[in-house]
Design brief:
With 445 residues, the chain is mainly alpha-helical. Helices cover 61% and strands 5% of the residues. Helix 7 runs antiparallel to helix 19, helix 9 packs antiparallel against helix 10 and helix 10 packs across helix 15. The protein is globular, with a radius of gyration of 23 Å.
Length: 445
């Protein structure tokens, strides 16, 4: 079973591998690379070798090494019984009867209430998708693509026509981004293989990106949102400092890769404009080639072939490249503001080992519901419900929200809902606050 399955002195004292009984103290020792255990429903698993074969990627499962991963396991696997077939061979024991079900002083009652809530929502059918809803989502994306091309065919390539075409294509790309997100989270079909196939079609053929790249990156974000070194979405490559802890750490160490006290200003120059057309594009291409992911690369190339076949006859090669770049530029603004208004203003810190509910509520907030907000954000205005139940179809978030809020109120967990405008403004405000914290620490500590 790898190094994690070897009998240690502390394991012997607490029952060891021979009796297959472990304490939390013993489990927590196995949290290093190459030696990783985790707990699901009080059963102890040695995942040291399995992580390399984990379909969701090495990192997302490794983030729970040495911890209870029950709620994360249930959240990510719509068919736990299927996943249990793989887990059975990895089980090395279980927690001692004297050990609590939760590690690190997590609130037992809160965890039980959350699991009861999930069971209630499942009984109500809120994890069942409406095929018509997702058919309409796909249909309106294809309609926008067709309208953009018909517009150019009928009215030519003048500046006004090109601008309207770009807006239609950017809208289509943004909405396709929300739809691939649904398939990627296995929230549309009962069988995972159909979700995977449609995910590759939407993100590959309709958007020109990689499903595997998205899975490995995005699941880490859901597993440990806003946790430094675990959530790739808060890895800012020294371009920004986030939250309250990181700015002080950078300032105290006299780290000044950028003038962070002005990050709320240069965010408009290097954040929304560049994330998708530059950073994501380079990262996606590098990932597909470096990992030899030829299937995703082939799907991605079908997008570019279709796009250039449609637009080169009107704009030429250079003009088509410029149009595509401008569409990515517009889409990037849409994507960044929608996704970051729920996270950047929230708590961003190092690992605290909170329970699932508390961790997700610290890192996320909601934006008020309206028909426009739902459409504009792909229902990610219900970010709280999405993070708690990532496999729940998005059209059911609003039904789950009152129950989630009631549970949060019961246990004193803040449940924050903002207007769309405040959510957007808070992104800039939080960047300014973090920049000010950095400057103060840089000058005075």
């Amino acid at each position: 079973m790898g190094r994690g399955g070897q009998k240690t002195d502390s394991a012997s004292e607490s029952g060891g591998r021979g009796s297959s009984i472990f304490t939390w103290e013993e489990v927590q020792k196995h949290s290093r690379r190459g030696d990783q255990w985790l707990v699901i429903n009080r059963k102890v698993y040695n995942i040291s070798d399995w992580v390399k074969r984990h379909p969701g990627g090495i990192r997302v499962i490794s983030h729970y090494a040495g911890e209870d991963a029950t709620d994360a396991f249930v959240a990510f696997h719509p068919d736990p019984q299927f996943a249990q077939k793989y887990l059975k061979a990895l089980q090395i024991g279980e927690l001692a009867a004297t050990e609590p079900s939760q590690d690190r002083q997590k609130k037992e009652q809160l965890v039980r209430d959350f699991r009861s809530l999930r069971e209630e929502l499942e009984r109500r059918g809120l994890f069942r998708a409406d095929p018509l809803f997702f058919s309409l989502c796909l249909g309106h994306i294809l309609l926008l693509e067709a309208l953009a091309l018909l517009l150019v065919w009928a009215y030519g390539t003048g500046w006004t026509t090109t601008l309207i075409c770009a807006v239609l294509l950017a809208t289509s790309q943004s909405q396709a981004g929300w739809l691939q997100h649904d398939f990627g989270h296995l929230s549309v079909f009962k069988k995972s293989k159909w979700n995977h196939l449609l995910h590759k079609f939407v993100i590959g053929h309709l958007k020109g990106a990689s499903a595997n790249w998205w899975n490995h990156r995005h699941f880490q974000h859901h597993a440990k949102p806003n946790v430094f070194s675990k959530d790739p979405d808060v890895n800012m490559l020294h371009a920004f400092v986030l939250g309250k802890t990181q700015p002080v750490e950078y300032g105290t160490k006299k780290l000044k890769y950028m003038p962070y006290n002005h990050q709320h200003q240069y965010f408009f120059l290097i954040g929304p404009p560049l994330l998708i057309p530059v950073y994501f594009h380079i990262q996606i291409m590098h990932t597909m080639f470096s990992r030899r992911d030829w299937v995703d690369l082939a799907w991605s190339m079908t997008y570019y072939m279709r796009y250039f076949l449609c637009y080169v006859p009107f704009y030429g090669l250079f003009g088509s490249i410029m149009l595509c770049s401008f569409v990515r530029f517009l889409e990037s603004h849409w994507f960044v503001w929608v996704t970051q208004m729920n996270h950047i203003p929230m708590d961003i810190d190092h690992e605290k080992h909170d329970d699932w509910l508390t961790m997700q509520l610290k890192a996320t907030c909601n934006v008020e519901q309206s028909l426009f907000n739902d459409w504009f954000s792909g229902h990610l205005n219900f970010q709280i419900e999405h993070h708690l139940f990532p496999t729940m179809p998005r059209h059911n978030y609003w039904l789950a929200a009152p129950k989630v809020k009631a549970l949060c109120d019961k246990h004193g967990v803040p449940y924050e809902v903002k207007t769309l405008w405040r959510g957007l403004v808070d992104v800039v405000r939080s960047l300014k606050k973090s920049g000010d914290l950095w400057l103060d620490a840089y000058l005075h500590k």
